[in-house]
Amino acid sequence: MTNVFDITAFGAVGDGVTDSTAAIQAALDAAAACRGVVQVPPGNYMTGRLKMGKGVSLEGHSAWSFRSYGASVFTLNTANTDCMLDITGAFGCTIRGMSLNGQALGEGIHGVKLYWDRYNGGSEEDTPTIDDCRIGNFSGDAVHLEHIWCFSVRHSMLCFSNAGLYIDGWDGFILDNWFSGNRDGGIKGGRCCTSVTATGNRVEWNRLAGFYMPYVKCCNFTGNYFDRSGGPALVLGGDNSYATAVSITGNLIYRSGKPKPTPFDEVYDSAHVRMTKADNVVLTGNTFRIGCDDGGGGTWSPDYCVVIKDCNHCIVRDNVWNRGSIQEGIVLLGDNPDVVTEGNIGSVHKA
Questions:
Q1: Owning domain of residue 338
Q2: Tell me, what CATH number does 32's domain have?
Q3: Mean pLDDT per 10-residue run, the chain (351 residues)?
Q4: Is 176 within the bounds of a domain?
Q5: Whether residues 305 and 214 fall in one domain
Q6: Contact of 272 with 249, CB cutoff 8 Å
Q7: Which of 63, 78, 193, 238 could form a disulfide with 189 if both were Cys (CB 3.0 to 4.6 A apart)?
């Protein structure tokens, strides 16, 4: 009995015209019966909504670049759906070497979606893996994980969508990815973003923020490159939310706070990092730098390096920010007991 299924054997045609939804779904269903592998030969396959099963691996040939989708491409061909690929209940599934193109169709259509109506909705670890994929141009999020429990996203490009990666849940590894040009941030957290490690990612030209996490707990952000965020590179906590037990070390944070056509809702959004109602957060060993658009155009930013509001038991020290901001290095707002801000080396630069 075979456990490897080629979608073309089920009638899928990668000509960029033929609707291959039914054929691809038939291959996925066959693989779900045996925890099998679905193979996608190079081609552009037009598709609507697809559903993955438990333990299924969807494997293509990546060959994607920053400017183009790769060899094995699924292109959305309907605006009447909630997502292209539903992985809810597909425990242990893998998506590898695929490119998913949403064509900006519809409203709120996600590329990859996992949704439970409550936390621990599946009563076991979800554990999906997304590896070496390019997922972009969706009217919703490139990857939307709601009430997720355990996941990994590696060596992929999540781009030109609402959020690159939306997380509401816990236990995730986010390694060696590109988050580029997303409207609501490279990564956006829901009401729970807990026990997540993000390392070695390039987070660039995202509006709102690089990582926007109003509710964040027990997370580690290390060795990432944040470039030209349309707000802070990192937003942690909020006036009606929280941030606790977060380690932020060894990141390079460059030319955040890219001005919008209209002024920021708050002047302090022209900052590299904003921390509000944070507790037990360490921000150390990072490098901050102002900048303008590529080629020397646009407005230099940001005005501030780190804005701290109503925080407690936090350390902001031993960062370097020579020419790191235009107006001030650290801004303290509200009441900030037991917040240490020392050893940060550098000076503002009037651009």
A1: 208-351
A2: 2.160.20.10
A3: 94 98 98 98 98 98 96 98 98 98 98 98 97 98 98 98 98 98 98 98 97 98 98 97 98 95 86 98 98 94 97 98 96 97 90 57
A4: yes
A5: yes
A6: no
A7: 193
Whether 229 and 289 share a structural domain: yes
Closest CA to 119 of 51, 196, 193: 193
User: Which tens digits make up the pLDDT trace of 285-324?
Assistant: 999 999 999 999 999 999 999 999 999 999 999 999 999 9
* pTM of the predicted model over 0.85: yes
| Tokens 């790769």 found at | 70
CA distances from 206 to 74, 215, 228, 269, 319 (A): 24, 19, 7, 14, 23
> Are 4 and 78 found together in one domain?
yes
Looking at this protein, which amino acid is placed at residue 222? T
Q: Which positions ≥6 away from 122 have C-beta within 8 Å?
A: 88, 89, 91, 116, 149
Position 201 in a domain: no
